Amino acid sequence: MLEDSRPRERLVKNGAENLSDAELLAIVLKTGTVKENVIEMSNRLIGKYGLDKLSECSLKELQEINGIGFAKACQIHALFELNKRHSLASKPVKKITCAKDVFDLFHERLKDEKQEKFIILMLNTKNHIIGQEIIAKGTLDSAEIHPREVFKSAIRNSAARIILVHNHPSGDPTPSEEDIHVTKKLMDAGSILGISVLDHVIVGGEGWWSWKEDKG
Predict the structure, then answer these.
(1) DSSP 16
(2) How do residues 147-184 score in pLDDT, each as one tens digit?
(3) Which of 21, 29, 46, 201 is the S-S candidate for 102 at Cβ 3.0 to 4.6 Å?
């Protein structure tokens, strides 16, 4: 590849904002294969899958793409995860006042997830966020969501209150019977422990469901 065409040299000379998507991806991937250089590979990936599709792929799915091995799959995965975290950091939510605050905090992170994640958001007495933790992954099952695991983190972080959060990969935030059962079980446990469960927010594709707001 001619020196003037190399993406890193072009970045130094012209600035990152003037590089194409393929050139930026090429800088992340670093090298191509025997059959195609890194710019050609990047153009093929973006032309065939698009940035949106690439960002949704798991490590396993990325490695199934021709020319993408384990190292490159990790680089691509890390790139899009960093982008998600940057989006969250640019719009920080420090205090929870309503279910929309919870949705705004987690939507970007959870909207493309292909499996459910059950998270607890830990708050102090003034509803300021002091921590969060993923408790379980996969289809929500009350047998898997044990109060001991949920409140262990809350106690360790000296949380006064918690909010339960999970996503529906289908995009529909409507609660299932199991969602309702888990909510009631954890609210009862919180009452005994003196740690209030303020709400359970289900994050969907474009909206949310809130136990507190739905129940009035």
Answers:
(1) G
(2) 888 899 899 889 999 999 999 999 999 999 999 999 99
(3) 201
How would DSSP label each residue in 178-205?
HHHHHHHHHHHHHHHHT-EEEEEEEE-S
Beta strands in the chain (DSSP E): 117-123, 129-137, 161-167, 196-203, 208-210
Helix (H) or strand (E) holding 28: helix 21-29
Q: What angle is formed at CA 182 by the lines to CA 180 and CA 186, rounded to 5 degrees? A: 120
Which residue ranges form the domains of the chain, and what is each CATH number? 3-89 (1.10.150), 91-215 (3.40.140.10)
In 3D space, the residue among 175, 169, 154, 155 whose CA is nearest the CA of residue 204 turns out to be 169
CA angle at residue 151 from 147 to 152, to 5 degrees? 110
Adjacent-strand bridge partners of 119: 134, 165
